[in-house]
């Protein structure tokens, strides 16, 4: 008759042996994996960690002011907000993109889809929109979205640029040279206001004074302004110029030339 105690001890030793073997295999596997990662994959893993933990953004130097010879400001740089996102901190890219698109102006369905794709791409940094208006920045900030923030960027600002460009565009309809009274009639503005608007153009030699007339600094400048007008605007300006110059007693051939181009 066999000894029950002996059989029990044999069974226990077998079970301990199986557990020891399994434990040894597990430890060996873990050690092998650690050796593989720490030695053979060290370079690639280090580079991946660096990409995930840090990023570099070039910050251009702020451009200085430009003044004319009388000290009047021609161009300056102002700080504006740009909206950025950290996609790794955003749980739902589609929902965040929809909210941001509602807060931004001129955000089409295609823009929203492109923004959602950028937010779902697990990167550390992505621009949402650069150089937004103060109102857009206020609306985005009010959303208080996780992973969305602002950085300051420099934007070039030209005082009176839009007004001067608009007035010079009208002046180009009058030809390569013009008198200020004719431009004032065409623009339907006081002569003093026209002089005030064009003072930066004079300082920058876009137009130059020659006797009682103003002459474009180069024919290419006048051509660029003239061709930059929409055809319908160009015809309307020629028609208005013909009426204004006729009322001012301009020669018939000049009035006729404007009427021809108004057709």
Largest sheet: 4 strands, antiparallel
The number of helical runs is 11
Q: Helical proportion?
A: 55-70%
Number of structural units classed as domains: 3
The low-confidence parts are none
User: Averaging pLDDT over every residue, what do you get?
Assistant: 82
What coarse outline follows from CA principal-axis ratios? rod-shaped
Order of helices and strands: HHEEHHEHEHEHHEEHHH
Please report which band the strand proportion falls in: under 5%, 5-15%, 15-25%, 25-35%, 35-45% or over 45%: 5-15%
Number of strands: 7
**N-to-C span:** 126 Å
Radius of gyration: 36 Å
CATH C-level class of the largest domain is Mainly Alpha
Per CATH, the architecture of the largest domain is Orthogonal Bundle
Q: Decide which structural class fits the backbone.
A: alpha+beta
Oligomeric category: single chain
CATH fold-level name of the largest domain: Arc Repressor Mutant, subunit A
Model description:
This protein has 263 residues and is α+β, with helices and mostly antiparallel strands. It is rod-shaped and about 135 Å long.
Topology:
Elements: H1 4-40, H2 42-53, E1 66-67, E2 73-85, H3 93-103, H4 109-120, E3 126-129, H5 134-143, E4 148-157, H6 161-173, E5 177-178, H7 180-187, H8 191-203, E6 207-210, E7 213-216, H9 219-227, H10 231-247, H11 252-261
Antiparallel strand pairs: 1-2, 2-3, 2-4, 5-7, 6-7
Helix pairs in contact: 3-4, 6-8, 6-9, 10-11
């Amino acid at each position: 008759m066999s000894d029950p105690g002996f059989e029990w001890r044999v069974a226990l030793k077998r079970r301990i042996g199986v557990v020891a073997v399994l434990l040894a295999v597990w430890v060996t596997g873990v050690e092998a994996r650690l050796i593989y990662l720490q030695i053979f994959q060290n370079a690639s893993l280090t580079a991946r960690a660096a990409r995930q933990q840090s990023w570099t953004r070039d910050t251009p130097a702020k451009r200085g002011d430009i003044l004319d010879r009388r000290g009047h400001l021609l161009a300056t740089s102002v700080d504006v907000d740009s909206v950025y996102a950290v996609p790794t901190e955003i749980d739902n890219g589609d929902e965040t993109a929809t909210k941001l698109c509602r807060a931004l102006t001129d955000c089409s369905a295609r823009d929203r889809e492109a923004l959602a794709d950028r937010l779902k791409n697990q990167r550390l940094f992505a621009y949402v929109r650069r150089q937004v208006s103060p109102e857009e920045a206020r609306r985005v900030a009010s959303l208080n979205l996780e992973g969305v923030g602002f950085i300051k960027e420099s934007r070039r600002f030209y005082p009176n640029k839009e007004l001067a460009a608009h007035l010079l565009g009208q002046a180009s309809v009058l030809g390569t040279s013009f008198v200020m009274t004719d431009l004032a009639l065409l623009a339907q503005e006081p002569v003093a206001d026209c002089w005030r608007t064009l003072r930066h153009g004079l300082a920058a030699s876009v137009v130059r004074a020659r006797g009682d007339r103003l002459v474009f600094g180069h024919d290419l400048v006048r051509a660029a302004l003239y061709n930059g007008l929409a055809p319908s605007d160009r015809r309307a300006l020629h028609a208005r110029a013909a009426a204004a110059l006729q009322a001012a007693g301009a020669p018939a051939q000049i009035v006729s030339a404007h009427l021809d181009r108004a057709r």
